[in-house]
Structures are given as structure tokens and as C-alpha cells.
Write a structure and sequence with these properties.
Layout: H1 6-16, E1 20-24, H2 28-41, E2 45-49, H3 51-57, H4 59-71, E3 77-84, H5 87-96, E4 100-103, H6 110-126, E5 130-135, H7 147-153, H8 157-167, E6 171-174, H9 191-200, E7 205-207, H10 215-223, E8 226-231, H11 233-249, H12 256-278
Parallel strand pairs: 1-2, 1-8, 2-3, 3-4, 4-5, 5-6, 6-7, 7-8
Bound molecules: glyceraldehyde-3-phosphate, 1,3-dihydroxyacetonephosphate (13P) and zinc ion.
Residues 83, 138, 180, 208, 230 line the site of zinc ion (ZN).
Length: 284
């Protein structure tokens, strides 16, 4: 089927009390792994492209590959811009056929983040594309910050309420203790904060930096209102593990298909596990 609006996927997730997996793609094998896993689990799924992915593969390739994948499957697939950096980029993605865009104004002062998000919404609304924004700052696991800086980066529930009221945005990414990349220890999520935010806003909440978050914490976050869970790092790990395994066993292997095929299968297994964890299996 054609790419579906992410808003629809998240509304169903809200009604069903589960979360849709949003998996970062960078090449054909990752997109195939996502779709194959979602098919096996009969789950709706979101393919998303980061800044790095767009630089590496190009918007045209990512869009074309994901469109072909979606058109040749029975499961609903959405295509989303991850951490969009400018109004212009969100418009480019919309023009290419993305069904959702994130505008990440989290580094801006609150009112500037609101103004930028509203500018994107004015265009996206006109063509039925959903918009995700970010309040609080979801950093990287490599960020060297103090405890007080870390606390200050978490989402303030009242700010989140004000942001949603001032924009009418479709989904909100929040900072409750997760970070992008490989964690050094076990991340501790601020569930009280999540609960407060959920009580004040009635739109789907997005959890970033979800690779490496313990399963029980993901389950709890979904119970408390998370409806989109972003996974990238776990796919990178699976991809590299697959490549390593082949080359360690057979260092003379030179057929890319024999190296990338097993890497794809490893990613697909990880994605299937995540889909089951998020409760979206069987919801296609
Ligand atoms: O949110 C960030 C992604 O996980 C990775 O971004 O592809 O630009 O390195 P990147
Ligand atoms: P991880 O790489 O930590 O899974 O985060 C992915 C993400 O949040 C993409 O926006
Ligand atoms: Zn992210």
C-alpha cells in the first residue's frame, strides 16, 4: 500500500495502548530488514531518516526505497524525518513524499521553538503530513555534562503543556533520561516526569534514544503514554555483528551479498523483538 500518514498510526496506537517502532534507515538492507520484520510480526512500522542518513544516502534514494518497500507490502508503513533541522528541510521531505516530519527546535528558546514548529505545521497540515517536535534536550550518551546540566535538559511538564497548546503539534518528543547512542551504564528514566507530562498533554509521546533502555522501562514508558519508540543504535550493533561474524568465519569472502545478507537478518531479528516489546505485533 502507499505510505500511510504517521498521525493515523499513532492515533491507533493511542487507542490500543501500544507504541509503534520507528527505526532509522541508512541503506537498502536496513529498509528491507525493517519491512521484513514488520511483515513477520504483522505490525505497523515507521521508517525514519536522520541528518546522517540524508547526507549518506540522499533524500531521493531513501524516499524511493521506502516507497517501493511500502507499495509491495500489506503492512502500513510511514516515512518520517528524524530530527529535522530547518523549515526548508521539512518542506523538502514533504515534497518528496514523507508522511511525517520532526522539527527539532529543542536547542532554541521555547518561544522560538514554538514559532518554528508553527511554521512547519502550517505547511504540513495543508498536505496531511504529521509533525513531531521536541521539548527538553535529548542529548547523546557521549555528552560530557554535569548532573545539574542533565537535570536542566529534561522536559518541564508545564513547558510541554504550553508548547502543545501553542502549536497543536501531532506528537511530542520528550527528555526523561534517555540519550542517543550506546549507554555506558543502565539509563534511569524519570517516570514521574513522564506521568506529569502525560496528564497535561493529550497527544502521542515519542521516546528517543531507546536502544539500550531495559525492556521493563520501555514497557512502563508505553503504559504511561509513549506511542512512538525510536531505535537506531541497536540496528547498527546488529548490522556490524552480522558483518563481523561472516568475515571472522570466512575472511576471504568478497561477495557483498554474503556479508550484508546475514547483517540484514540480524537487524530483522532485533526489530522483531522490539516490535513485540512495543505491543505493535498483530496491529497491522
Ligand atoms: O537521532 C539520531 C540518530 O540516531 C543518528 O543520527 O544518523 O545523524 O548519526 P545520525
Ligand atoms: P538510539 O540510537 O539511541 O536508538 O536513538 C535513536 C533515536 O532517538 C533517533 O531519533
Ligand atoms: Zn532521536
Amino acid at each position: 500500500m502507499p505510505l500511510v500518514p504517521v498521525k493515523e498510526l499513532l492515533q491507533k496506537a493511542e487507542a490500543g495502548g501500544y507504541a509503534v517502532g520507528a527505526f532509522n534507515c541508512n541503506n537498502m538492507e536496513i529498509i528491507q530488514a525493517i519491512i521484513e520484520a514488520a511483515e513477520k510480526e504483522k505490525a505497523p512500522v515507521i521508517v525514519q531518516a536522520s541528518q546522517g542518513a540524508i547526507k549518506y544516502a540522499g533524500l531521493e534514494y531513501i524516499t524511493a526505497l521506502t516507497k517501493v518497500a511500502a507499495e509491495n507490502t500489506f503492512i502500513p508503513v510511514g516515512l518520517h524525518l528524524d530530527h529535522g533541522t530547518s523549515f526548508e528541510q521539512t518542506v523538502q521531505c514533504i515534497r518528496h513524499g514523507f508522511t511525517s516530519v520532526m522539527i527539532d527546535g529543542s536547542k532554541l528558546p521555547l518561544e522560538e521553538n514554538i514559532a518554528l514548529t508553527n511554521r512547519v505545521l502550517a505547511v504540513a497540515r495543508a498536505v496531511g503530513v504529521s509533525v513531531e517536535a521536541e521539548i527538553g534536550k535529548i542529548g547523546g550518551t557521549e555528552d560530557d555534562i554535569t548532573v545539574s546540566e542533565w537535570e536542566a535538559s529534561l522536559t518541564d511538564p508545564e513547558e510541554a503543556k504550553h508548547f502543545v497548546e501553542a502549536t497543536g503539534v501531532d506528537a511530542l518528543a520528550i527528555a526523561i533520561g534517555t540519550a542517543h547512542g550506546q549507554y555506558k551504564g543502565t539509563p534511569k528514566l524519570d517516570f514521574d516526569r513522564l506521568q506529569k507530562i502525560k496528564a497535561l498533554i493529550n497527544i502521542p509521546i515519542v521516546l528517543h534514544g531507546s536502544s539500550g533502555v531495559p525492556d521493563e522501562a520501555i514497557t512502563r514508558a508505553i503504559q504511561l503514554g509513549v506511542r512512538k519508540v525510536n531505535i537506531d543504535t541497536n540496528l547498527r550493533e546488529a548490522f556490524v555483528a552480522g558483518v563481523r561474524e561472516v568475515l571472522e568465519k570466512d575472511p576471504k569472502q568478497i561477495d557483498p551479498r554474503k556479508i550484508l545478507g546475514p547483517a540484514k537478518n540480524k537487524m530483522s531479528e532485533v526489530i522483531r523483538e522490539k516490535i513485540r516489546l512495543f505491543g505493535s505485533a498483530g496491529k497491522a
